[in-house]
Amino acid sequence: MDYSAARRNKGGLYEGLYRLVMRRNSVYVTFIVAGAFLGERAVDYGVQKLWEYNNLGVITSATISKRYEDISVLGQRPTEE
């Protein structure tokens, strides 16, 4: 068996990735743009959750700090009785 035929049959991870994504320029560019969009969304979601976790609203004897979302009466109109 000749080496080029054996190599063509087996392939590897990089050869499979090349055949799937990088063979055509339009597929490669679409893969890069979609990856950048999904990566940006994942990083944005992670940073937002980390920010919310670290800023839950600290109540100490000296200061009271809350987030806008923690105050239930903001944005509501006063009821007239």
Structure explained in plain terms:
This protein has 81 residues and is mainly alpha-helical. The chain is built from 3 helices and no strands. The N and C termini lie far apart (93 Å).
Instruction: Note the total helix count.
Output: 3
Largest sheet: none
Label the overall shape.
elongated
β-sheet strand percentage? under 5%
State mean pLDDT (0 to 100 scale). 77
Compose a concise summary of this entry.
By secondary structure, the chain is an all-alpha fold. Helices cover 59% and strands 0% of the residues.
Primary descriptors:
mainly alpha; elongated; 81 residues; single chain; 3 helices; 0% strand
Task: Please give the structural blueprint.
Layout: H1 3-10, H2 13-22, H3 25-54
